[in-house]
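Students often ask why we bother encoding 3D structure as a string. The short answer is that it lets us treat folding as translation between two languages. Here is a chain of 698 residues written in the first language.
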Amino acid sequence: KNSATSKLVQAILYSYIERYVQSLKLIKSISDLELSGVNHILYSLVLNGLESKKIINADNVFRYYKPLLNSDKIPQESQLFYAFVYLSKLQTLKDKKSRIILLEKQMATFKNKIQLAQIFKAEWSSLKIIVEQDKKSKSKYYQVLDKIMSETRSEYFLRKSIYVRVLENFIEADEVQYLTYVATTWLKYTDKSDTEFAYARDIYIDKVFARAYMNFSDKNYNYAANNFFGAVGFTDDLESHFGYIKSSFFNNKGQDLNKTYESMYQRKVINESIHYVNSILELSQFLSEINNKSINIERKKVEQVKLFEDVLKKLKDASTFFQTPVYQLLLGFSYLKLTELSIDRYEFSQEMSSLAHKHLMLAYDLGRYNKRVRASALSNLSFLHLHISNWGMAKRFFEMREKLGFVDNDQMFSHYWFYAKASYYLSDYEVAISSIQRLLKNVKNFKDRDAVLLQKLAFYQLSNGDYKSAEINFLAYLNIAGKDDLWNIAKSELGLGYAQFKMFTDKKTRNNLLKTRALNSFKKVLAKVETLKTLTVGGERKIEQNPQRLKMLAQGYMAQLLEGKEAITALNNYLNTLNQISNSLSDLAMIKSKWQASIIKTQLNIAHKHYINNDIVKSHKYLKLSFANLREYIEENTLAFNTDLHNALVSWSDLALATNFTENTKEFNGYLSGAISEIKKLDTENPSVKRLLLRLLK
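And here it is in the second language, the structure alphabet:
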């Protein structure tokens, strides 16, 4: 019961049931003499648990690590590990000057433990280098550190612990010069055939990149460029080249990079990676220039195709990097851009898209231990499949990408905006809505984007049948739209009118105020139509944005809301618009048979309105017109089962009988018999089909 092992197991159990005070009391009673065997491992487990719950404050951390560091019962390698853990904890708890004061006191306790004294002194000297302002003082403390590194070069575990800790400190402080000195020294004392060489290189890159990307996301591009440049000369890593070039361009220093890299290549600092570098330089320079050029879209497109084809040629000369994820990422990105540039409505290059998918998947697979590469590969895969209308794959890759997080607000905005789009096209409206709502919760981070987010949210809610929410958000958008694109405003007013129209036609929400609001919304659409220009199809625009389409929809809904002569006028306006778009059906993504059915239905509606007004002559006029269109429809589409056709036959028959219209009777009866025969062939139990058959028979 009173053994150290028993106490430590009890302490673990107390922590498990969240009785931390009892757990802390038990480990206080453990002396360094009792930490032999498994006890020091149990002790460290308890200690880590208490620290994670903030039970031990920063000033007392050393008191609890001291038994682990002082004990003569613990193997030297384990004590080095505990020292490393303690120093890492201290880095998160105290500022640099406070750590220096603490370390000066603590180093004195390790007179008989040389290795612990050395790791503490190395930590102390690295912090002194950071806090000192003048070069002479920095150099003085670096000599202390350099001496320790020299003395410990044959001590494998000690050397590794010292270097990693010192690198952590220099990276956090952006001490690029001394960071490079230490990393170079580590590799100098490590044979290239030793696995530690690769480990040292990876540790250095990992730590430097973490700091570099943090500076980059904070828009400290000068610091980020310095971080990446240190890795460039030290490792010739492709990601370091990419980061350095990108940071330099953001820092408006991209114009000097060609000379810098030419010099490095001549001095053999870099070798075959120059081909990758030249590709990135060409991309960065071209894209920054072309965005400022006043050239037409087609010429810009041709220049971009030439650019990416040239990039692919350069990458072939850097084929020794083929197995690196960053190389595959640039290959995949280049093929992705060529895929985008090949898109013409529903057509695109299958070859380019397949190669883009292949190389981006290779980048993802090869970069499975590099979160940044995986995130970039998944983003590019998402956009690739989004561009080629492969919505299911796009959504899947967006979902995988989401788990990796985002480095800045722009990245987050782009992800959820297009994730919502892919979900919308899959009719997963709930996900589309929640994605936009997530962005709206962080709208303060997205300057001037609140309007476009409200508009998109309203459209998704409209598609989901949540008409009240759609109305609220359309109104919110229109209230702040200001000088937004006229097409966006007109489409939003149409969407608003449709939401109000749907609520008015629902018995549960119907009221005349909704009808008035809907009519006003549609009138605003009609007023704006004359100012809108047609946006023709081509590239990724699959459907022509024609003002006549908005006009047609607004007129159609208005006709359903109006009564008497106003309804007839609205229906005639709608009919005229339908006739005006007859030559643009394919550009508007309208099927001719549906367009014909709309004309027939509208003519029959007008005939019915005139019948109600006792104007039989005009009713007969539209029955005659509708029959001519009905004949044309049947000749082009046959009498095979078609609800549009069969409903038109029923409506025409009812009106002809009601108004005593006797023209075309024989021909009509032939159509009627044919339609009945076609339905009977279906031999179906579908209730709606059976009802239609009964209406035809009647």
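Translate back mentally: Residues 601-698 form one domain. Keep this in mind for the problem set.
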